Amino acid sequence: MIRAAATPVNANIEHGYIVCEERDKPDVLRQLLHAMMPAQAIVFVHRNEKAEVIASRLAYHKIPVADLHGAFNKEERKKAMDAIRDGSARVLIASDVAARGLDIKGVTHIFNVDVPTESKAYLHRVGRTARAGAKGVAVTLMTEQEMRLVDRYESELGIKMMRVRLREGEVLPVDEQTAGAIRVDRERRPRKEGR
């Protein structure tokens, strides 16, 4: 008898979460994108409408973004994928339905704006980063009520999730003993005067 083991979570992925109000998630995402400067990111949402709203807000703030959701036809989907692949967009907003079968090279960050209720769905989403030996970061935006899922992810997936916060444009651990848990690639970030 052969028993298939559960798919392990890639050890090269750092997992973090930030707590905010539901209505603040688009703004918190924008701040995280500015603070972390991902080379390429996928932002996951549940619904098509939310994908459109977040994409338009990020575009308004001059963040190169492509939107990919289940209501898109084949031509619109190709246009979004081309924008990510050719680098004209560095952030892809995707609903779960649209993201099935996505294989994008070079994804450095995953952001969960809508929190997956099942650990398997979390694993599927974060598995889009840290491929071929690369490192990746996954950050989940949670309300106080959604924080209960941290324990589920940690116990069912065998991961450790660090609670982080934004402060003066920096992503910092809430618990100072976990400093460095979510790394930011400082090589790509412009240095501020006086530092």
Model description:
The protein is an alpha/beta fold and 195 residues long. It has one domain (13-178): Rossmann fold. Helix content is 30%, strand content 22%. The chain has an eight-stranded mixed sheet. Strand 3, helix 3 and strand 4 (91-95) form a beta-alpha-beta unit. Helix 5 crosses helix 6 (148-157). It is globular and about 45 Å long.
Evaluate the radius of gyration: 16 Å
Provide the residue-averaged pLDDT. 85
Please state how the strands of the largest beta sheet are arranged side by side.
Answer: 3-4-2-5-6-1-7-8
- Name the structural class: alpha/beta
Helix content: 25-40%
Tally of domains: 1
Number of strands: 8
CATH superfamily: P-loop containing nucleotide triphosphate hydrolases
Give unreliable regions as ranges: 1-5, 184-195
What share of the residues does DSSP label as strand, in percent?
Answer: 15-25%
* Quaternary organisation: single chain
CATH architectural category: 3-Layer(aba) Sandwich
Shape, please? Answer: globular
What is the first-to-last residue Cα distance?
61 Å
Outline the secondary-structure elements.
Layout: E1 13-19, H1 25-36, E2 41-45, H2 48-60, E3 65-68, H3 74-85, E4 91-95, H4 96-99, E5 109-112, H5 119-126, E6 136-142, H6 148-157, E7 161-167, E8 170-173
Parallel strand pairs: 1-6, 1-7, 2-4, 2-5, 3-4, 5-6
Antiparallel strand pairs: 7-8
Helix pairs in contact: 5-6
